[in-house]
Here is the input.
Amino acid sequence: MTLIDTRPGFAATLVQLGLETGVEMDVEAMSERLGPPLSHMLAPYYPADRITGLVDRFRAVYPDHAIAPTLAFAGAHDALAAVRRHGGRTVVVTGKFTPNAALHVEALTFDVDHLVGEVWGVGKAAVLEEHGATVYVGDHVHDVEGALAAGALSVSVLTGGCTEDELRAAGTHVVLETLDDFPAWLDGHVLDLRLANLEHDLAECGSVMVAFSGGADSAFLLAAAVRALGPERVAAATAYSDSLPQAERSPARDFAESLGVKVFTPETHEMDRDGYRANAGDRCYFCKAELLDTLGPLAERHGYAHVATGTNADDAVAGFRPGIRAAHERGAVTPLRDAGLTKEQIRAASAAWGLPTWDKPAAACLSSRVAYGIEVSPFRLARVERAEVAVRGALESAGVRVRDLRVRDLGDVASIELDGEALAAAPALPAVTEAALAAGFPEARVDPKGFRSGSMNERLPDPERFR
Here is the structure.
């Protein structure tokens, strides 16, 4: 990566070298065309037999003259953070003397994984290949040469002495004005790569039945499967049970039918499973087991090679997800997770594809509202659903916008979780708690912490034992 503006420090060190040797160099011109090895740049001013010693002297005085005046380019730290955010690693490959380059990294607190100095041009290719670099960011035509020789994507920024025309003529793939533009470019690049992986993986499946809840993740997976396989080799299966809100059913069917896929609405009977009703920390395991035990045979009867769930990459690292284990044990495929697609990326891609679910609020099953240790029953689930509809209606009647809303069943108490504007307005709106009381709760209160997915897990004393 090109991270620092070395011109001031480089120039100061050249001036010092000139003073020591009594040679006047065109410091300004040399500083504006950084990139080639120092020995090449000194060659017009000194005899060949002195170059090696002068390079050594330059390196020796460099720390005293170059570190302090050298600043990071605008956006350098954010660019490194963007790589880290996507789970990547960074390697700085530079022509600088390695110990001096390390001083810059330390002084400017750059978060880098590896630093390799004293390589230039095509010679950088071996280092890039060794570290598995897929993108190389530079500002010189020789950086482009190194990237291309390594088979890496060349991204050039116009912060050095090379023009856009020169960089494009050298074969760079991308030109950015500054590093400030890099995070957004990387977001798009990573999303494109992951969407390509998703399409490839789905095509390899041959045919799929998508476990389709109607939420943003499974809706996107269904649309992606249609793109990769065609609607005739894709099915949507929406399981009907007491835990699926009535309000979710028709929109889910309408969406699936709009894609031209066959729609199945099998009934599931998770309530018949003791572990589900008991509602210990592993309730989701029994729910997902019931779902896959129902969809697996259904898919086989109708000739679909795989059952796919909408598990995404965030779910895989979220920690407490016993349902994922149940689906894995039953052979379900997880194309979104396997492609590395996060919730944010799924929403971004859904918006780009024009899917109406791109900004749909998270809608976990109704059982997730019942506190662990309280037995799940149709009565409790129906009461929660009535309360959520009533609370949302009360807020909307008061002109308060709410996106994410949950009514948690804590036994005899309804804990109302709201987001943003609704949470701020709730204390002045008694109709909010009154709506939950009217739905059948003996007591109701607004949670001051607001809406947060998985808040019931906060009440588990030892979630590890349910993994």
Q: What stands out?
A: Residues 367-466 form a domain with the GMP Synthetase; Chain A, domain 3 fold (CATH 3.30.300). The longest strand covers residues 413-418. The mean pLDDT is 93. The longest helix spans residues 182-205.
